[in-house]
Every structure is written in structure tokens, then in C-alpha cells.
Amino acid sequence: MAKGDLGRRLGVAAVGIPLGIALIYYGGWVLALVLALVALLGTLEVYGLAAARGWRPFLWIGGAAGVALPLWAAHAGSFEAFAPVALLVLVAVAFVSLGAAVFRRGAEGDPLLAVGTTLFGVAYASLPLAFALLLRSWPPAGEAGPGSVGMYLLILPLVITWMGDTGAYFVGRGLGRHKLLPSVSPAKTVEGAIGGLVGSMFGAALLAWLFLGPASGAHLPIVAALVLGCVVGAASQLGDLAESVLKREAGVKDSGSLLPGHGGVLDRFDAVYVSVPLTWALLPFALAGG
Fold first, then answer.
1. How far is CA 86 from CA 18, 82, 90, 167, in A?
2. 78 shares a domain with 222
3. Do 43 and 181 share a structural domain?
4. 199 & 166 share domain
5. Looking at the structure, do residues 121 and 262 belong to the same domain, yes or no?
6. Domain count, the chain
7. What pLDDT, on a 0 to 100 scale, did the predictor assign at position 1?
8. Fewer Cβ neighbours under 10 Å: the N or C end of the chain?
9. How far apart are CA 139 and CA 271, in angstroms?
10. Do 135 and 5 have their domain in common?
11. 104: DSSP letter
12. Whole-structure pTM over 0.70, yes or no?
């Protein structure tokens, strides 16, 4: 990585991390509106990758659904209230896209590709961010207002991801010798992947020790945090590799140019798309008394 590129990355991180923590601290509709915007941008970036291959998803259908899912999650406040409407939105995207393909493009307009990419964009770049809002209002956390313990439950997968990225970068740069998947991401090494797992486990255990103790209202034991960090960290690395595959298929280096030194929304959130919903799914098994 060039020094200038690293400097831009550090500059974006210096602004983005405090801003992100502030948004998570306050939660509510402020966080929901920002995540809805991020979901829209990410969904459109997916469609940009599809367009690079000559495919034509329906931007207006996917964009509207991409905004709707995080906003509905903020309103619903629980998975039980969120899930039926979210499923209805995804079904609507599929059938409205199919109808648009039939009446506006016909068989020559690649209807299967148009419908599939439209639905995938929403499911990949928007639905996971809705789970971020469900984590923020996690039931065992009690009140979901500013500074509540739900904040730490949402920060948990982010710390796992960020510490994993940091560990993978420095270990891979210093000790990396064996390529992990050179056909997908030539720079990644086996040593870096192991360093990333160690970083993820350390980050999860440290956050659990500092903020998710027995008196927090959402007790995450250290052993459970280590296991959670390992599983979510491994899945996060897979999410990173998956986005690399999508970019390689599209023939582009970055999914976008929104963030200097970081690329687009997908480049920055690829691992988070996996770590956030997976953390939400595993927390009931990891929390003491959960």
C-alpha cells in the first residue's frame, strides 16, 4: 500500500470512527437515517457492478427498498415486528422487478439477470444494515436511548471487524508468505488471515471485559466473546473475499470512489454486511442467561 493511500485511509478513519461512535451512541432515527443513506449508496454500487457487466437492474425499485428496510427496522424495534414486513419488501422487489422486466423490456432484456441483480442489491447492501438497528435496540439491553448497553452490542461486530482488519494487515505485511486465495485477492495471506482471527478474538474479549460484564444487562462472558470473535471474524474475512469476487467479475478495482483511500461503500462495509447480522443471530447463545 502506498504511503499516500495509507494517509488517506488514516484520514478517513480519523473522521469516520468518532462520527460512527457518536451516531451509535445516540441511535434512534439519526442512526436510522444515516444507515438508510448508506444502504441506498451500497445498493446503487451493487447495481454499478452489474452495469459493468452489461446487466440492467431496476435502480428505482432496489433503491426504494434499500432505503425502506433500515427505516422499518428502526420503527419496528424488534425482529418479530421487522421480519414479516422485510420479507414482504423482498418479495415485492422480486415481483415488481419481474413485472417491469415483462412490460418494459421483454425477453430480450435479460429479465432473469435484471430481477436477480435488483433483488441481490437490496439483500446484500441494505438488509444487513437493518440488523444493525435491531442490535442497537436488543431486547436484553433494556432502554435503547443514548448511551444504553445496546450501543456496545452494535459496536461489538464493528470492533471484531476492525480489529480483524488491523491484525490481518500488520501480520500479513510482516509475516505473510503463503497466499490465501490468489485468484480472488492476491495480497491476502494465510498468516494475515490467522492474525485477523487473533485480532477479532482480542477485540471481542476486550469489549466484553470493559463494557459487557455481569452488571451491564447483557453479560457476555470472556470465553463466549472469544468464540464469538473467532466465528464472526472468520465470516467477516469471507465477506471481504466475497466482495473481491464481485469486483473481479465486474472488472473494477473499487466499488466506488466515495471514500478517499477506501473506495466505495461496499469496499468499506463488505465485512460488516456479514458480521452484523451474524452477531445478531449468535448473541442469544453467547450472552449469559440468553
1. 30, 6, 6, 35
2. no
3. no
4. yes
5. no
6. 2
7. 46
8. N
9. 25
10. no
11. I
12. yes
Q: How far is CA 169 from CA 6, 77, 78, 160, 241, in A?
A: 12, 36, 36, 14, 14
| C-alpha cell of residue 108 | 430480450
Cβ–Cβ < 8 Å for 236, 274: yes
Instruction: Give residue 57's identity as a one-letter amino acid code.
Output: P
Give 112-175 as a 3 state SS string.
HHHHHHHHHHHHHHCHHHHHHHHHHCCHHHCCCCCCCCHHHHHHHHHHHHHHHHHHHHHHHHHH
The last residue of one of the domains, among 74, 109, 144, is 144
- Which of 127, 144, 161 represents a domain boundary (last residue)? 144
185: three-class secondary structure by DSSP: strand
CA 256: distance to chain centroid? 16
Going 137 to 238 to 263 to 192, the CA torsion angle's sign is: positive
Banded pLDDT at 26 (limits 50, 70, 90): confident
Range of the domain at 74: 28-144
Shared domain check, 18 and 53 = no
Measured CA angle at 288 (ends 286, 290), to 5 deg:
70
| Nearby residues of 129 by Cβ (< 8 Å), 6 or more positions away | 35, 38, 39, 42, 69, 70, 269, 273, 276
69 closest CA partner among 50, 48, 90, 55: 90
Instruction: Indicate if 38 and 140 belong to the same structural domain.
Output: yes
| pLDDT digits 0-9 by tens, 227-284 | 999 999 999 999 999 988 888 888 887 776 666 556 788 888 899 999 999 999 999 9
Residue bearing cell 445496546: 150
